[in-house]
Request: fold
Amino acid sequence: MRGDAYVHWCQKLGAEPSEYEDAYSVGAAGDAELWSFTADSPRLRVAVADGATESMLSGRWAQTLVQSYTADPDSPLGTCIDRALDAWPQLLQAYTAEREGDGRPIAWYEQPGLDRGAHATLLVAEFHLAPDGHSGVWVAEAIGDSCLFHISGDQLQSAFPLSGAEQFDSSPALVHTGLRDKDLLDKHRRRTSGAFAAGDEFFLCTDALAAWFLAQDELHARPWVEWSHFSSGKRRGVFDEWIATERFSGRLHNDDVTLLRVRIA
Amino acid sequence: MPYTAEISRANPTCFVFIVDQSGSMNDQIGGEVAQRKAQVVSDAMNRLLYELTLKCAKEEGVRDYFHVAVTGYGHSVGSAYAGALAGRDMVPLSEIANSPARLEERTKKVPDGAGGLVEQAVKFPVWLDPVANGGTPMTEALGKAQRLVSEWIEQHPACFPPVVLHLTDGESTDGDPSQAAQSIMSLLSTDGNALLFNLHVSSAGGTPATFPDTDARLPDQFSRLLFSISSSLPEHMKAYARGQEIVTSEGTRGFVYNADVSSIVQFLDIGTRASDLR
Reply:
């Protein structure tokens, strides 16, 4: 048995690719778009995050969070978040210096946002292949409304942390760069786990796709079938065309989208 | 469903602010420190533009989710922008951000990390100065706002319905403004009717009110008239109002009496809000 991970993403319609504020990371290399795990290398960590629109540098913060989680497979999520929080002041300082160097010092309307800090959702998952090579277990944790869907036997086995399309709004729980109250974080942190077998699939996605998925599932439309067409990085155009169609139809909210698929074969 | 259109650079919407700059705005209103009404209103306007700008500020600049007109009325009716924007009607938000008349140094209190507060210098942009002279041609000003909104909707038919916010001490000198107000509220994008909100700055006393659902406790005929020409708050805005601990009901209207109105900026969705965990 082996697992493969693929990532597809697309910025909000009307925005530049550089303005994409979601983030994803797969395995220790972080930026790979295709990753496999096998009996020889039986663990895989993946993460997806969504930087808040009304927040400065939220894309960079989302990236910092996901990389902190996948870069160190031995640390629990809390430690990874702490590491990201510790790294942030330096990243912010570097950004300010970069802007000075570019002759574009921080403007008056940016400073309050920088002072306020950046915000992002965070969804992480870890997959372990069992030593027998025929089964495995997974664990996921989330803060906010980025979601994981586990498909097994052509059924939606698990929708996490949200399970209904009506549960999405514009104020999800967010990890904030100024976060110091760990009890508060724990209060909003959700955790789930399960087992997987050959043929199972997992989708991790940010809110617009997650809301679409759950709305379609409520119509008994088996939305995972539609997403199975995006399985190969070589067919990226299929994903982009599908996103454009669904946005145009009004079924998919116009937002940055990220879809991370883990397929067990 | 109305009032659900996306607000984005591809589908922006507009704000039209109408500011009373008549002679009566020289009068003072109470509170802990007496202030000229003209000062209260220009402060409120500058605060609104500031909040709106911060809401849309990103690393590459301020995003044009909104275009904004500020119409003043007193000795005449026209653009109330000061500085480089003087004379302009509808201005993209990024241009507003880059063109305040001046930046003032102010102080604000911020947590010192040890349970106390410390004063911090901040830059505060000023786009409008307090002005108070002439009559109160409220009806004419509402008519001008109606034209601005109408032109906007013609060019952006699928926009989130424009919001008109009128700041006044309430005493029209060119007749009953009700008809002009109705003309604004009857303008329609594919997402719903334009919204007219009113802020009444008054020296008549009484209890400040934020988005009331009845005029029963308002102190005079002027505040009751302004309440009557204020749009009902759409459902999602009521939800945000409740989040600010404002009680709402079926009859809740976009009317504020002698209170802060800058919260309306938070009623508009441009994407995920940057809210801290609670």
Summary: The first strand of chain B starts at residue 13 and ends at 20. The first helix of chain B runs from residue 37 to 55.
